[in-house]
Amino acid sequence: MTAQPDSLSALLGGRRGALDATVPPLAFAAGWLAGDRIAWGAAAAVFAAVVLGSVRLAKGHKVTAVVGSLTAVVAGALIALYTGRAEDFFLIQLLSNGASALAWAVSILVRWPLLGVVVGLVLGQKARWRQDPDLLRAYGRASWVWVFAQYVLRTAVFAVLWWSGNVVALTVARVALSWPLVAAVVAVSAVVLRKSLPADHPGLRHPRVPAPVT
Protein backbone atom coordinates (compact mmCIF):
# COMPACT_ATOMS: atom_id res chain seq x y z
CA MET A 1 0.00 0.00 0.00
CA THR A 2 2.99 2.32 -0.10
CA ALA A 3 2.00 3.50 -3.54
CA GLN A 4 -1.26 5.03 -2.41
CA PRO A 5 -0.06 8.47 -1.32
CA ASP A 6 2.19 8.79 -4.39
CA SER A 7 -0.60 7.74 -6.71
CA LEU A 8 -3.03 10.22 -5.21
CA SER A 9 -0.51 13.04 -5.19
CA ALA A 10 0.28 12.47 -8.84
CA LEU A 11 -3.22 13.41 -9.93
CA LEU A 12 -2.98 16.83 -8.22
CA GLY A 13 -0.30 18.34 -10.37
CA GLY A 14 2.10 18.79 -7.44
CA ARG A 15 3.73 22.22 -7.17
CA ARG A 16 2.26 23.25 -10.51
CA GLY A 17 -1.25 22.87 -9.17
CA ALA A 18 -0.38 24.81 -6.02
CA LEU A 19 1.11 27.72 -7.94
CA ASP A 20 -1.71 27.86 -10.47
CA ALA A 21 -4.25 27.93 -7.66
CA THR A 22 -2.62 30.64 -5.55
CA VAL A 23 -0.47 33.03 -7.60
CA PRO A 24 -3.13 34.54 -9.96
CA PRO A 25 -5.67 35.18 -7.14
CA LEU A 26 -2.95 36.78 -5.03
CA ALA A 27 -1.93 38.92 -8.01
CA PHE A 28 -5.56 39.95 -8.55
CA ALA A 29 -6.00 41.03 -4.93
CA ALA A 30 -2.68 42.87 -4.91
CA GLY A 31 -3.47 44.75 -8.12
CA TRP A 32 -7.00 45.56 -7.00
CA LEU A 33 -5.84 46.86 -3.62
CA ALA A 34 -2.93 48.83 -5.10
CA GLY A 35 -4.95 50.68 -7.74
CA ASP A 36 -8.43 50.38 -6.21
CA ARG A 37 -9.60 49.31 -9.66
CA ILE A 38 -10.75 45.94 -10.95
CA ALA A 39 -8.83 46.48 -14.18
CA TRP A 40 -5.55 46.59 -12.27
CA GLY A 41 -6.35 43.36 -10.48
CA ALA A 42 -7.49 41.67 -13.69
CA ALA A 43 -4.33 42.72 -15.53
CA ALA A 44 -2.12 41.51 -12.66
CA ALA A 45 -3.88 38.15 -12.49
CA VAL A 46 -3.69 37.54 -16.25
CA PHE A 47 -0.04 38.62 -16.32
CA ALA A 48 0.79 36.20 -13.49
CA ALA A 49 -1.05 33.39 -15.28
CA VAL A 50 0.79 34.11 -18.55
CA VAL A 51 4.17 34.06 -16.78
CA LEU A 52 3.33 30.77 -15.07
CA GLY A 53 2.10 29.32 -18.36
CA SER A 54 5.24 30.39 -20.18
CA VAL A 55 7.41 28.72 -17.56
CA ARG A 56 5.30 25.55 -17.84
CA LEU A 57 5.67 25.44 -21.61
CA ALA A 58 9.41 26.04 -21.37
CA LYS A 59 9.66 23.06 -19.03
CA GLY A 60 7.73 20.84 -21.44
CA HIS A 61 4.36 20.69 -19.70
CA LYS A 62 1.25 19.86 -21.72
CA VAL A 63 -0.19 22.74 -23.71
CA THR A 64 -3.76 21.75 -22.81
CA ALA A 65 -3.07 22.04 -19.07
CA VAL A 66 -1.44 25.44 -19.50
CA VAL A 67 -4.25 26.74 -21.69
CA GLY A 68 -6.85 25.44 -19.24
CA SER A 69 -5.30 27.26 -16.29
CA LEU A 70 -4.88 30.47 -18.27
CA THR A 71 -8.44 30.32 -19.59
CA ALA A 72 -9.88 30.04 -16.08
CA VAL A 73 -7.98 33.13 -14.95
CA VAL A 74 -8.92 35.15 -18.04
CA ALA A 75 -12.58 34.14 -17.65
CA GLY A 76 -12.59 35.20 -14.00
CA ALA A 77 -11.01 38.55 -14.90
CA LEU A 78 -13.53 39.18 -17.68
CA ILE A 79 -16.47 38.35 -15.42
CA ALA A 80 -15.24 40.79 -12.76
CA LEU A 81 -14.69 43.50 -15.37
CA TYR A 82 -18.14 42.94 -16.85
CA THR A 83 -20.05 42.98 -13.56
CA GLY A 84 -17.91 45.61 -11.89
CA ARG A 85 -17.68 43.44 -8.78
CA ALA A 86 -14.19 42.40 -7.73
CA GLU A 87 -15.54 39.38 -5.83
CA ASP A 88 -16.85 37.97 -9.12
CA PHE A 89 -13.26 37.09 -10.07
CA PHE A 90 -13.79 34.11 -7.74
CA LEU A 91 -17.23 33.18 -9.10
CA ILE A 92 -15.85 30.48 -11.41
CA GLN A 93 -14.16 28.81 -8.44
CA LEU A 94 -17.42 28.87 -6.51
CA LEU A 95 -19.41 27.34 -9.36
CA SER A 96 -16.76 24.78 -10.35
CA ASN A 97 -16.45 23.46 -6.79
CA GLY A 98 -20.21 23.15 -6.49
CA ALA A 99 -20.33 21.25 -9.77
CA SER A 100 -17.42 19.05 -8.68
CA ALA A 101 -19.16 18.16 -5.41
CA LEU A 102 -22.24 17.07 -7.36
CA ALA A 103 -20.24 15.14 -9.97
CA TRP A 104 -18.17 13.26 -7.38
CA ALA A 105 -21.27 12.38 -5.33
CA VAL A 106 -23.12 11.09 -8.38
CA SER A 107 -20.08 9.07 -9.48
CA ILE A 108 -20.09 7.25 -6.15
CA LEU A 109 -23.80 6.52 -6.31
CA VAL A 110 -23.52 5.03 -9.82
CA ARG A 111 -20.51 2.95 -8.68
CA TRP A 112 -17.96 4.81 -10.79
CA PRO A 113 -16.21 6.78 -8.00
CA LEU A 114 -14.09 9.47 -9.62
CA LEU A 115 -11.12 8.85 -7.34
CA GLY A 116 -10.91 5.35 -8.77
CA VAL A 117 -11.36 6.64 -12.32
CA VAL A 118 -8.52 9.16 -11.98
CA VAL A 119 -6.10 6.90 -10.11
CA GLY A 120 -6.91 4.05 -12.49
CA LEU A 121 -5.93 6.25 -15.42
CA VAL A 122 -2.75 7.43 -13.66
CA LEU A 123 -1.76 3.80 -13.02
CA GLY A 124 -2.67 2.68 -16.54
CA GLN A 125 -5.40 0.35 -15.32
CA LYS A 126 -8.30 1.96 -17.19
CA ALA A 127 -11.39 0.38 -15.55
CA ARG A 128 -9.84 -2.90 -14.33
CA TRP A 129 -10.13 -1.71 -10.72
CA ARG A 130 -13.94 -1.90 -11.01
CA GLN A 131 -13.70 -5.68 -11.34
CA ASP A 132 -12.26 -5.82 -7.83
CA PRO A 133 -15.16 -5.46 -5.33
CA ASP A 134 -12.78 -4.48 -2.52
CA LEU A 135 -11.17 -1.71 -4.57
CA LEU A 136 -14.52 -0.48 -5.84
CA ARG A 137 -15.84 -0.19 -2.28
CA ALA A 138 -12.63 1.45 -1.03
CA TYR A 139 -12.59 4.04 -3.81
CA GLY A 140 -16.22 4.84 -3.08
CA ARG A 141 -15.56 5.47 0.60
CA ALA A 142 -12.43 7.52 -0.09
CA SER A 143 -14.25 9.59 -2.71
CA TRP A 144 -16.70 10.82 -0.05
CA VAL A 145 -13.72 12.46 1.65
CA TRP A 146 -13.16 14.50 -1.50
CA VAL A 147 -16.86 15.38 -1.77
CA PHE A 148 -17.27 16.80 1.73
CA ALA A 149 -13.77 17.73 2.94
CA GLN A 150 -12.84 19.50 -0.27
CA TYR A 151 -15.62 20.44 -2.66
CA VAL A 152 -18.55 20.99 -0.27
CA LEU A 153 -16.30 22.83 2.18
CA ARG A 154 -14.89 25.10 -0.53
CA THR A 155 -18.32 25.79 -1.98
CA ALA A 156 -19.73 26.77 1.41
CA VAL A 157 -16.82 29.05 2.32
CA PHE A 158 -16.58 30.69 -1.11
CA ALA A 159 -20.36 31.22 -1.23
CA VAL A 160 -20.48 33.02 2.12
CA LEU A 161 -17.49 35.24 1.33
CA TRP A 162 -18.64 35.95 -2.23
CA TRP A 163 -22.09 36.92 -0.98
CA SER A 164 -20.52 39.30 1.54
CA GLY A 165 -18.26 40.78 -1.16
CA ASN A 166 -15.11 40.31 0.90
CA VAL A 167 -12.36 40.12 -1.74
CA VAL A 168 -9.47 39.92 0.73
CA ALA A 169 -11.10 37.06 2.63
CA LEU A 170 -11.86 35.31 -0.65
CA THR A 171 -8.20 35.55 -1.61
CA VAL A 172 -7.09 34.16 1.74
CA ALA A 173 -9.63 31.35 1.46
CA ARG A 174 -8.52 30.61 -2.11
CA VAL A 175 -4.96 30.08 -0.90
CA ALA A 176 -5.84 28.26 2.33
CA LEU A 177 -8.29 25.94 0.59
CA SER A 178 -5.94 25.04 -2.27
CA TRP A 179 -2.77 23.05 -1.62
CA PRO A 180 -3.03 22.87 2.22
CA LEU A 181 -6.56 21.46 2.00
CA VAL A 182 -5.72 19.19 -0.92
CA ALA A 183 -2.73 17.77 0.96
CA ALA A 184 -4.97 17.00 3.93
CA VAL A 185 -7.64 15.42 1.72
CA VAL A 186 -5.04 13.27 -0.03
CA ALA A 187 -3.67 12.07 3.30
CA VAL A 188 -7.10 11.29 4.76
CA SER A 189 -8.40 9.59 1.62
CA ALA A 190 -5.23 7.49 1.43
CA VAL A 191 -5.87 6.31 5.00
CA VAL A 192 -9.52 5.56 4.17
CA LEU A 193 -8.41 3.56 1.13
CA ARG A 194 -5.93 1.56 3.15
CA LYS A 195 -8.37 0.90 6.00
CA SER A 196 -11.14 -0.11 3.58
CA LEU A 197 -9.09 -2.86 1.91
CA PRO A 198 -8.63 -6.34 3.43
CA ALA A 199 -5.30 -6.93 5.12
CA ASP A 200 -4.26 -9.39 2.42
CA HIS A 201 -5.12 -7.11 -0.51
CA PRO A 202 -2.12 -6.49 -2.84
CA GLY A 203 -2.86 -2.73 -3.15
CA LEU A 204 -4.01 -0.15 -5.69
CA ARG A 205 -1.58 -1.26 -8.36
CA HIS A 206 -2.81 -4.86 -8.31
CA PRO A 207 -6.60 -5.19 -8.65
CA ARG A 208 -7.97 -8.64 -7.94
CA VAL A 209 -9.60 -9.38 -11.29
CA PRO A 210 -11.73 -12.54 -11.31
CA ALA A 211 -10.50 -15.24 -13.64
CA PRO A 212 -12.61 -15.54 -16.81
CA VAL A 213 -15.20 -18.29 -16.79
CA THR A 214 -14.35 -21.06 -19.25
TrEMBL record:
<dbReference type="InterPro" id="IPR016566">
    <property type="entry name" value="UCP010219"/>
</dbReference>
<keyword id="KW-0472">Membrane</keyword>
<keyword id="KW-1133">Transmembrane helix</keyword>
<feature type="transmembrane region" description="Helical">
    <location>
        <begin position="144"/>
        <end position="164"/>
    </location>
</feature>
<feature type="transmembrane region" description="Helical">
    <location>
        <begin position="102"/>
        <end position="123"/>
    </location>
</feature>
<feature type="transmembrane region" description="Helical">
    <location>
        <begin position="65"/>
        <end position="82"/>
    </location>
</feature>
<feature type="transmembrane region" description="Helical">
    <location>
        <begin position="176"/>
        <end position="193"/>
    </location>
</feature>
<keyword id="KW-0812">Transmembrane</keyword>
<protein>
    <recommendedName>
        <fullName>Intracellular septation protein A</fullName>
    </recommendedName>
</protein>
<feature type="transmembrane region" description="Helical">
    <location>
        <begin position="38"/>
        <end position="58"/>
    </location>
</feature>
<dbReference type="Pfam" id="PF11361">
    <property type="entry name" value="DUF3159"/>
</dbReference>
